[in-house]
Please model this.
Amino acid sequence: MFLPFFLNVEAQDSISFQSKDTLRTDISDTVTVKYHSPTRAALLSAVFPGMGQIYNRKYWKLPLVYGGLGTLGYLVVHYNKLYQQYHDAYVQYYKYGNTEILYTLPKFNMSYSISRQLEFYKKTYRRYRDMDILLFCGVYMLNIIDATVDGYLLNYDISDKLSMHVEPALVNGSLACNPSLGLKLSFDFR
Model:
């Protein structure tokens, strides 16, 4: 039901009657498993974020990818707009002595030092913008890494043949005469 993309099953059944009492059946099944490429998942996520998760059939991760990238993209645009406003006001104030533009700025108080406020808000919004750009790049890279790791783990064999056991054991040390209590960790590969 969930593997039609990765699994082609072809079956050929034939039944022939030789006599009234005997029934002869020939059943030959062919199962071909398509290889899932982690490289393809990484490339799909690099070209279009979220496509690697779709290729890996991890649809529940799409809102996380698009939510993170969308939110950070919005914040980059928002803080860049505020930075540009304060940068333009800074240039207008120091180059031309224009104070009219200061009344249009958000969070600006004319009763405080104009030069300090312009410098403070300009640096603050530039720092916020740059930090959000770095976070955006981090979420984008995390999207690619996640698609690659999921691509590798889709082909990973998790069966009863692989097991790990932890149990208490007595450990005989070479320096101590008395055995001590410890943990025994054993892996079984059948």
